[in-house]
Amino acid sequence: MKKYLTAYAISLQETLQRRSTLIMDRVGGFAVILSLYSFWTALLGDKPGFMGYTRAEMLTYVLVINVLRSLVFTGRGWQLVGEISSGKISSYLIRPLGYSAYALSLDLAQKSVHVASAVLEVALLSALTRGALFLPRDPAAWLLFAASAALASLLFFYMEFTVSCLAFWTSESGGPLFCFELFLTFAAGAFFPLDVLPDGLRRLLSATPFPYMAYLPARVFLEKVTAAEGLRLLAVEAAWLAAVVAVSRLVWRAGVNSYAAEGG
Amino acid sequence: METVRKYFVIWIRTAGMAMQAQLTYRLGSFGFLIGKMIRLGFFFAFIVAVFNHVDTVAGYNLTETALFFLTYNVVDMVAQIFFRGVYGARRTVSEGDFDFYLVQPCSPLFRIVFSSVDFLDIVTLIPVLVMVGVAFGRLPHAGWERYAAYAALVLNGVALSYSVHVFVAGLTVRTQEMENAIWIYREVMFMGRFPVDVYAASVRWALTLGVPIAVMTSFPAKAYLGRLSPAWAAYAFALSALGLIASALYWRASVARYTSSSS
């Protein structure tokens, strides 16, 4: 455990040291959220709500998504692809550590910094726009949201990890990974609530793990689900996570077995 | 004329090589292409779905909002197709390849900006252009001058985008890093997906006078819809001229300070 904590600490220092990269990343992310916030504000106009969301709830959805994007949608997929393709992964395979746990430590360090920045951005945007935020009154909603967001973060990490393992078999895994990430971001509700989609498509997506990564945690935060329903969703999310972790382990093992250290 | 022919031949050669690379990299290219289609499709579906519940957003109906979104895509994709080389500028500089560009009988700026062509965006651009045609067909009839203004302002937007790419290339040569600069531009460009009128006044001014994304993406559609005054159109062209001159000067100053990074 200590070695992973050390990896976390070093990665945290590195992320904080590369300040210009961090600031530029956040500026880009802030532009996206400002854009969506403005769109919804214009759409709502003088209306009290839209599709079952009050004005405060809809604008809060956008802001919560900013935090979730920083917590959930940052992985180590592209680094893994690069390390496999270049052969650098060899140096990790001979070390006394589990690669996925090591990668998760690095990812958590990056997430820590980005989530802290995202919370500051939300506070800034909220103050600038004087927008009324919806804050859950029930402490259970906060707990359920925190648990659901944490599971979502792991779910994304292991899903991306699994897709990135394609690099063991092909040097062209960048394309599928790009496609997967884009689809997942939309299907998770990280740009807009899935309620706006047609019923059929929404039902189809709800049978996948994708909405558990942004849309459902945001609904939990907005108290759109009861505590009992929230617990049920959390159990389903945990089941998805267990399944994805199992698949990622199988794929990783198969990938390492077929790995030929090309480029290394 | 001879110079134009020379650069056209160079561009054809480098574009051909880029195409061969993308055709060789079939699975990867297919994944990127599908990803781009997904992004386009989801955003379009979102806009259509939203307008099932409201009549207007910031005073624009569905077809008008779609025209803004599509115009953003036209400008962005044309820039992606032609100026893709800038995305690899950092590697070109840090690995020392830029030194070879400098000794070749060809403008290093031309090589660094136009050295790669993203053919996947050409494939994605086709349905976008078709949809622009459909949007024109659904909007009230407009005279030829509106179409001319639209086309001129789209080209103007591409010229502004070129200035930004040249500025980023100059920054890369000067600092030998800034790998994120072009991605920041891409992220900020996200704001161009919606009509500039959805933003608060201060943001609207910033997007028109500061980071001129509105000039690139919203002005063409506004001109077509007859909502852009001649003064703002003149401002757009003047801004592009200024941007082209300033970015060329910055590039020249950056190359003058270049000291080679790897040799």
SSE diagram, text form:
The complex is a heterodimer of chains A (264) and B (263).
Chain A: H1 2-17, H2 19-44, E1 49-50, E2 53-54, H3 55-72, H4 77-86, H5 89-93, H6 99-129, H7 139-164, H8 174-187, H9 199-206, H10 215-221, H11 227-258
Antiparallel strand pairs in A: 1-2
Helix pairs in contact in A: 1-6, 2-3, 2-6, 3-6, 3-10, 4-7, 7-10, 7-11
Chain B: H1 2-24, H2 26-50, H3 62-82, H4 89-94, H5 97-103, H6 108-114, H7 119-138, H8 144-175, H9 181-189, H10 201-210, H11 213-224, H12 230-256
Provide keyphrases for this structure.
heterodimer, A: 264 residues, mainly alpha, two-stranded antiparallel ribbon, 11 helices, 73% helix, B: 263 residues, 12 helices, globular
3D structure, described in words:
The complex is a heterodimer of chains A (264) and B (263). Chain A has 264 residues and is mainly alpha-helical. Helix content of chain A is 73%, strand content 2%. Chain A contains eleven helices and two strands. Chain A has helices spanning 2-17, 19-44, 55-72, 77-86, 89-93, 99-129, 139-164, 174-187, 199-206, 215-221, 227-258, and strands at residues 49-50, 53-54. Chain A has a two-stranded antiparallel ribbon with strand order 1-2. In chain A, β1 (49-50) and β2 form a beta hairpin. Chain A is globular and about 60 Å long. Chain B has 263 residues and is mostly helical. Chain B has one domain (2-256). In chain B, α2 runs parallel beside α7 and α3 (62-82) packs across α8. Classes of the chains: A mainly alpha (264), B mainly alpha (263).
